[in-house]
Each structure stands twice: as C-alpha cells, then as structure tokens.
Amino acid sequence: MQNSSLSNPTTAINLNFGDYLAIREGELSSHLVNGIPDYAFSLDQKLRQQLASIGSVRAIAKSLVAMTIPYYKQLQQIEGIAVSPHQYPEIYAIGEDCARKLGIGIPQIFVIYSPSFDAWTLATDEVSPMIVLSSSIIGALDLTELKFVIGHECGHIHNLHGAYNTIVELMTNELCETIWNSIPTPGGLKFAIQGGIMLFLMRWKRCAEVTCDRSGLICCGNVTAAQMALAKLVTGGVERLQGINLEEYLKQIQTVQSTPVRLVELTQSHPIIPKRIEAIRLFADCDVLHSWCPDLPVTTTIRSKQEVDGLCEQFISVLAQNYQSQEK
User: Fold this and answer.
1) CA distances for 126 relative to 93, 122, 155, angstroms
2) Cβ atoms 119, 153 nearer than 8 A
3) Residue 191 pLDDT exceeds 70
C-alpha cells in the first residue's frame, strides 16, 4: 500500500491556525521598534512626539476631526464608489495585499471623480480609516504604481498618523476643504489650528510623507514604479510626458536650494517631488527595506537606517542647502 504521507504534499504543512497566528504575530512584531514601524522616518517620530506632548494641540485636532469625519464618510457613500471584492476588485485586491503586508485592517477605499491627481487618508482614533482615490490618479498609473500610492496611504494608518494627518488634509486638500468649510465649527478651534500650530503641523506632515513613501515602496516592492508614480504627480501621467529623465529632473532642485524661493515649501503639506524621489532612492539601499522585501535586488551597498535617515535629514528640511543627489 502506498504511504499517504508521501503521496500527499500537504501533510507537511502545519494547518494549526493558532500556530499561524503566532508566526504571523512574530513576523509583524519584528518590524516594530517601541511600537513604531521600523521603517518610519526619524523626524516623523520626533516631531510627532513633540505634538503629542502638547495636550492642547491633540485635543483641538481630535475635536475638529470628530466633528467632520462622520459627515465626510457618509458623503462618500453618496458621491463616491466604495471599492469591494465585487466593485473594482483589482483595486480592492491591492488594498488587501497592502494591508496584509503591513499587518493592518483592510481600509475602506472610495473612488471619486476628480481632475485632481490625488489620494488621501482620513482617520481618527475612534473612526475606521478610509482612503479616497481620485479617478485621475487611477487612470494615470499602472497597477504597480497604484500599489505604491495605496501602500503610501496605508502607511498613514500603520503609523497611527490619525488626527494630525486628517486635520492637515481637511485644511489643505481642496476637495476636503470644501466639506470642511461647509460644516459649522467653533471659530476659535479653526483659528487655533490655522495659526502657528499649522506651520508646525506642516513640517511634521512633510516628514510623515517620507515615512509613507517608504511604506508604499515596501508594499509595491518596485523602486522604479515608486519613482515613476511620484514623477507622474508632476506630469499628470500624460502619455507623451511619460519618458521623464529622473536624473535631469532631480538636478532642478539644486538650482534653487540656495535661493529664497525654497521657502515656499514651508506652507506645503508634502515635500517637493524631487525630494521625495531622492528619499525613495536612499531608502532603496536601506537594510530595513530589504528585511521587508528580501527578494528585492541589491544593486549598491546596503546602508543602515540610521545612515539613511541622516542623509534624508540633510535635504528634507526646507532650509537645507547644497545637498548633492545620490545618483545611481
């Protein structure tokens, strides 16, 4: 009689669900440092700790967000299209895969019509997160590039950016701002956020975007796709402009680094695109990325996260001057 254990290859597989959970928990916890994802940009962590230490700022942010998010989510149910296994399953599968990779719950993704090339995440500590994708950004990106974008948005959830990220989106994103302004809120709260606190929030948000670009790269596992997704934010993904020379594009930043015009970035919620592409290039050589994506090809010398963060800090600041791109 034939030995069934030899003829059935599945007998060697451990089907115990408890064992699977323990292994999965171990895999995810190995990527946490003091409860924070190991890929998070150091300045993101530092500035967020400073925000958390100012109790009034967190209280104000949570109050504003709590008044707005429930209404906004209901509005998306009316005006947007909710992604699901039966509605745009390719997009749902990307969100599901990103969530599995990072170890978070699958976020609710909505698609809305908009000529703006945009994606954003809204969440609080109490309300389940939602990701909104504009029709334009979906139409301009291939599936790997779209995975970078959705992975980036999942990074906000994974890193618990929560109320701070949402309040910046509400006050800087044109579509969110329209809703925000239509909801009556105490003027004092808005004034408090729009004052000096907003500049600090903007500085933190720029650093948080570096963290989330890293999350996007971890999810899509393709450095070129991540860079091209960012470049298409500038070109709008127009067919005739897709042959962008990244080396030439990155040289542009060097012409303005020592001029006052660079200060315009102080009021922006995202770093300028050349900086984001450069930050992706640096992280592509980071040991942390290769621990998440062991199959990613190694083309240069692997750097420690501390070294990568140190190089990022040299140019991600608005006041930085004379940084030289790490050309490949």
Assistant:
1) 25, 12, 18
2) yes
3) no
Residues 6+ apart with CB under 8 A from 33: none
Yes or no: say if 121 and 95 are a contact pair by the CB < 8 Å rule: no
Cα separation of the two ends of the chain = 61
Point out which residues pair with 109 in neighbouring strands: 131
Q: In this predicted model, what pLDDT tens digit does every residue of 204-237 receive, in sequence order?
A: 999 999 999 999 999 999 999 999 999 999 887 7
d(CA 193, CA 190): 5
User: Tokens 């930085």 sit at which residue?
Assistant: 320
CA distance to 79, 112, 134, 175, 236, per residue, from 115 (Å): 15, 10, 7, 11, 10
Contact between residue 228 and residue 276 where contact means Cβ atoms under 8 Å apart: no
Model pLDDT for residues 15-42, shown as the tens digit of each residue:
554 544 444 455 567 888 888 999 999 9
Contact present, 178 and 5 (Cβ < 8 Å): no
- Range name among 101-110, 138-147, 239-248 with the lowest pLDDT average: 239-248
Please give the torsion angle defined by the CA atoms of residues 244, 245, 248 and 251, in that order, rounded to the nearest 10 degrees: 70
Tokens of residue 186, six digits: 């105490």
pTM: 0.85
